[in-house]
Amino acid sequence: MKRLRKAGRLLLALLRELGDENAYRRHLAAHGKEHSRQEWQKFSQERLRWKFVHPKCC
Amino acid sequence: MKKILGHLMWAAVSVTAALALGGIALNRGEPINSLWLVVASVCTYLIGFRFYGKFIAAKVMVLDNDRATPAERLRNGHDFEPTNKWILFGHHFAAIAGPGPLVGPVLAAQFGYLPGTLWIIIGAVLGGCVQDFIILFCSMRRDGKSLGQMAREEIGKVGGVTALLTVLCIIIILLAVIALVVVNALKGSPWGTFTIAATMPIAVFMGLYLRYWRPGKVLEISLIGFALVVLSIFGGQWVAESATLAPIFTLSGVALAISVVIYGFFASALPVWLLLAPRDYLSTFVKLGVVFMLAIGIVLVRPQLELPAFTRFTDGTGPIFAGAIFPFCFITIACGAISGFHSLISSGTTPKMIAKEWHAWPVGYGSMALESFVAIMAMIAACALQPGVYFAVNSPAGVVGGTHEAAVATISGWGFPVTVQDMTTLAADVGEQDLFHRTGGAPSLALGMAHIFASTGGGRAILGFWYHFAIMFEALFILTIIDAGTRVGRFMLQDVLGHVWKPLGRTSWIPGVIFTSAAIVLAWGYFLYQGVVDPLGGINSLWPLFGIANQLLAAVALCVATTILVKRHRARYMWITCTPLAWLVTVTFTAGYQKIFSPWPRLGFLAQAAQLSASGATDAATKALIFNARLDAVVCGVFLVLVTTILIDSIRVWVGILHGTREARTSETPFVLSRLRPEEI
User: Fold this and answer.
1) Is residue B333 scored above 90 in pLDDT?
2) Whole domain around residue B471: which residue ranges?
3) pLDDT value at position B51?
4) Interchain contact B277–A (C-beta under 8 A)
5) pLDDT score at B190
6) What is the Cα–Cα distance from B545 to B534, expressed in whole angstroms?
7) pLDDT at position B540, please?
């Protein structure tokens, strides 16, 4: 049960990483900012600009 | 005691792998169970990972956990961030898993299940995993530099420019061929077309939700988006049954091609957050979920492989694409065995997130092994179909005959019995009007997946839902690659054109954005159109071109990897990358030569053009076909010249180092002691 819970936590962390939610948390922590719509938009703009200059795999 | 048990366990895995591989290789005449393929591949990947991968990690790359990675040294909480190895494993796998490992094996199944399966397993263990792992390591030791930058620094300026041009050409061909897969899957299918069309407003809704209503809640909106997409599948069924709406969503190949081109242009020029990003989040989650579901489905259902080990088409006369088993099996399946495109991912985001050097082993080698397993699953899904059905779906009208009767007569004559009634019943079961001549691989893969999913519960009653679910899954992430690829191609073109006229290089200058987006879209759109109107189905010419291009990019990556190995160890370990490199060069140059110069019109582009010219037809359509065949020959030739250039340049560097006339200087960053604490990862 403990292992299952750990696997579940890992899966959720993976989904959050894929969904950029973890990166957003890191961004807030690194800049000492609170979550707000403006802050998300600022983060998202920067993140997506960086993300979509790399080709996606075939 | 523990050590002895470990040795015994690995001995058991090795024996099981040998027995399973022997079983599938030697079986003839009767269908085998797909579980043989699962066991053979999984055991071989485990052995490759544990022994070959670890040998490369320990002896060749000499991975060192005391050495700080770029993620630690350059940590910025954004792209450079030490990440848990299993999270990074999933992240990297999601980035390398595209439509290639799903479609390639389905097409290569025309040779039978055996050649493709063996190439997927052996190619991955000795080639693909090695390439991904070594490039990841090289990039990690160079602060996450890209393949192009490494080629420039390690080989020379010519290598760098060649790598950039190769990537741009490949992106154009890649986008055209995967767009063709979507077009062929949706042609004449109101259910599928409605479902895919619905994903666009859904993505826009997700974008607005994420930006204005619930900022940052990506998982939440992705769940909502997924529920809406599933609803749109049911909506598609309703549309297909509606006498008024069905004709609106029943589109021809040309109409669909134009729609995809227009979509690609807007997706490239619109703000990323509105359409591209939400679609990308959704497609990533759906992709991972469906791959997982398929694995579970195969283990539960354990379908029989109905296709034989070898078909009569190993001689090159196959209806899906022309060309003999050597070299065409090895370029048709690229991404499941070895894919040059992976080197772009391994030298992109991933090296910037590795917390400890030894994590590169599971992330680089292990992720590719998993991707290879996805290809095995696609092979199983295709081979689980009745052979007659498989060929009826995948064969173009130009080869098997334009009418249903002619097609079934030709295919049955090959020894794969199928009737018009079988195909009509199957089409009705999956809610399609017609399943003949649905080339491209996606419809037959969707049929195979639907059979597996429906066999776990629900049966024929829900075959239509699962078929369109599979089509939605394939189209969703293919369209994500099209919009992201068009955008990347636009940036690369702006980068190049910026040297000619500066404003064109500015990514914020709207006329420049529109011009370069249009140029990229028209480039791949032209090849797409060419594929759609091709009487041989398009896949016959475009997929080999894409396969050659992708494998040539792998050759470029292996040239870079070999150069770095020669600089580190002289000739001692260069066989590790030179073996797959020599194989790829042999395969791609043979395939390239045959595609250009074969005297057989179905295979050789120039022979095809000559045959059309000799026919005496002077109409515009024939002239266009002649031009297209010659253009394909030129594109194929350009690929070969580009890779010859980088190969000669690399060999010059290797010989210089081995003879001591050239300094073995690498651009590796100096050692810095890691201070990363375990709780930080």
Assistant:
1) yes
2) 2-139+147-187+251-298+335-343+354-658
3) 97
4) yes
5) 96
6) 15
7) 86
In a domain, B192, yes or no: no
Task: Confirm whether B320 is domain-assigned.
Answer: no
Domain membership of residue B99 (yes or no) is: yes
Among all chains, which residue has been given the structure tokens 């001995």?
A: B11
Interface check B257 vs A, CB under 8 A? no
CB contact under 8 A, A58 and B345: no
Total domains in the fold of chain B:
1
Lowest average pLDDT, out of B75-89, B322-336, B380-394, goes to B75-89
Q: What is the pTM of this model?
A: 0.94
> Would you place residue B643 in the very low, low, confident or very high pLDDT band (cuts 50, 70, 90)?
confident
**Token pair belonging to B487:** 């955008």
What is d(CA B496, CA B132) in angstroms, rounded to the nearest whole number?
Answer: 27
Strands B32-33 and B304-305: antiparallel
**How far is the C-alpha of B578 from the C-alpha of B651, rounded, in Å?**
11
Q: What is the CATH number of the domain that holds B413?
A: 1.20.1740.10
What is the C-alpha separation between B331 and B349, in angstroms, rounded? 27
Interchain contact, A44 vs B211, CB within 8 Å = yes
Rounded distance, CA B166 to CA B588, Å? 14
Which tokens go with A24? 């957003």
Mind listing the pLDDT tens digit for each residue in B89-111?
998 998 898 888 999 999 999 99
Dist. CA A47–CA A54, nearest whole Å:
12
What does the pLDDT read at residue B386?
96
What percent of chain B has a predicted confidence (pLDDT) above 90?
Answer: 76
Instruction: Give the type of residue at B627.
Output: F
Compute the nearest-CA separation of B485 from chain A (Å): 6
Tell me the two tokens of residue B492: 């690369």
Domain assignment present for residue B515? The answer is yes
Q: What is the pLDDT of residues B501-543, one digit of tens each?
A: 888 888 778 888 889 889 999 999 999 999 999 888 888 889 9
Terminal Cα-to-Cα distance of chain B (whole angstroms): 32
Contact present, B490 and B478 (Cβ < 8 Å): no
Estimate to the nearest angstrom the gap between the alpha carbon of B134 and the chain centroid: 20
Distances in Å between the alpha carbon of B89 and those of B284, B346, B355, B362, B368? 14, 12, 12, 7, 10
A44–B273 C-beta distance less than 8 A: yes
CB B113 within 8 A of CB B307: yes
Task: Reply yes or no on whether the pLDDT at B78 is more than 80.
Answer: no
The pLDDT score that the predictor gives to residue B27 is 85
In order of B49, B292, B296, B516, the CA distances from B286 in angstroms are 27, 10, 15, 31
Does residue A18 belong to the interface with chain B, where contact is any CB pair within 8 Å? Answer: yes
* pLDDT, tens digit (0-9, with 9 covering 90-100), for B39-69: 999 999 999 999 999 999 999 999 999 999 9
Q: How many Å apart are CA B539 and CA B257, to the nearest integer?
A: 14
